[in-house]
């Protein structure tokens, strides 16, 4: 609300006034009510490898994170620019590869990347869109600047929490919400369906059949898959529900096979088609990639987008924006030392206690080292790991992340937050609903906001100008 | 709709119905076992016949040495070794519900989810025999709430029809089993022998399908074994009778056939079975032999379930 003791930010004025006049018990009651609401509708999050907490609620904080219209306008311009550039990058990588010929990105970062998919080479994807849904994680470090932490271009999740958080807030705080002009986000699902329909293959139906492909009910994001399918009014399918005949994809229905035009896939590439990728995948659909290559079905996001979102490519995104858009990146990158480069590596080795070290292909906050919070032994351990496989690591400074107030047992307290807005790209352009999923570190001082590591979420309000 | 979704809905309903039926069976065993010994007859063992009704006697014997109330309650209500225990029924029902979330109304999901949460909590500290009625009530209420939510909130389309098919296939199976386990006390020649003892058995049968009061409303006379059989097999107005289940099955299968524009073996089987139940009297049935009739019915009901699966669910 006011950083560290400074004046309250303009966007938080109304909230502050309301909080000051609210009876002391009120917040506790509403928090308990929120917990009950979430539990009842069954919004849970499965954590891998944790049988006891098989279905756990993601902690929800009832204090909203608020952004002014101006802040949002700047951010959304930057997001759109970045999404367009990354799409053009993918089109180039799986096409003419001009950026490699221009010497801007070392080719081995592409061709040795585990997410690079040679099957995508020379394929013309519908509408030229590779990343229909992107989740771009940003943090604010000062009054005006946002830094991008990570581009999630494969199967970004969390949007259901964004929508449910808003619904819960509307039920719990109608009075507070009526006091200011909060821009709506409820249309996300319509925009998503519109985006998916816009990328129907040219040979597809004029009234395209869209399905959402899920790995199944044991997946950690299954709740979100069923939520989105339900709200869009499309079938939630598993691999075994789909069958390919003569390079056309059908789903098995009670009325017999029905043709599918667009697959919104929440399955990792690796599992999509056992004939092309992992042969042991029981989750995928044999023949799917052949149907895709034949132009009879669209898979969103396209296979192979992971080549653009790993942490080694990340550090080149400002160059990517410049190369394809001919302009400077509006959103900054966190300065990144690539351990594959000799000088950078020696800097990282010498300054490990001040840096955050991440694996190039890691996600979910696993396998990373937060230098300032680590013991000397842990640092030494990481030094050995980096030395053994420098290509696999990058390091970044620990940022002075912005904080947002949360409601704790002892009243309001600041915690670090990030924001994942969802950027939709269709044949007809880019759509971003104002807001995103705010993730919050619940432990005081902690920088890790991942839900698999005990982070929570809160509603995000973007105010009208 | 997706075949897998239809399959999940069908089995979701079957498992909820099965849990409720088990609760009724346990309820009756508990009641009969609390009667003075002389009422029950010397060699009757209500807990064992509960196992037989549930079709679980063999599996039970593999796990336990002795038929005691505590063992039977544990096995039928909570045991993980018994895939059809009430607990497992709700686990499976919820798994099915989870995988078909988008085809359920939020009321149905909440009914299943909160029942699952409540029951899971209860089973952890294992209830005592005296607590049984309270537990069974919870189960029955959960099933009522689920069923009521389905009836009141679902669109009348194929999703609804498939979920109803599950209810009625399971219910018909259960009613036939309840009757078959006790068929010997329903044979006319036993009527005079029985007297007071048999009265309790007949009442128990009716109670296990919540039909004791209904009996009075339909027949206005004392319990007669052939009328008990008549009520549960042939009476259309009795909601758990075989005839009522088959009226519903053939009507919902016709709804599906009408909507899809094609009909198949499931429709033919259901219609034929329903016709047989409508054109018979209870005397005809006793002439064939009640036990034989019920065994034949159970096999037929199974065939219908298989045929629904082959035609729509896989």
From TrEMBL, chain A:
Transmembrane parts of this sequence: none
Gene3D superfamilies, sorted: 3.30.1490.270, 3.40.50.11290
Superkingdom of this protein's organism: Bacteria
Signal peptide start-end: none
Ranges of residues in domain Circularly permuted ATP-grasp type: 64-441
InterPro entries: ATP-dep_Glu-Cys_Ligase-2 (IPR051680), CP_ATPgrasp_2 (IPR025841), UCP005522 (IPR016450)
Stored PANTHER family: BLR5612 PROTEIN, SLL1039 PROTEIN
Stated name of the protein: Circularly permuted type 2 ATP-grasp protein
Source organism per UniProt: Microvirga brassicacearum
From TrEMBL, chain B:
Highest taxon of the lineage: Bacteria
Residue ranges annotated for the DUF403 domain, each copy included: 1-313
InterPro entries given in the database record: ATP-dep_Glu-Cys_Ligase-2, DUF403
Pfam families (UniProt xref): Alpha-E (PF04168)
PANTHER family, sorted: BLR5612 PROTEIN, SLL1039 PROTEIN
Protein name: Alpha-E domain-containing protein
Native source species: Microvirga brassicacearum
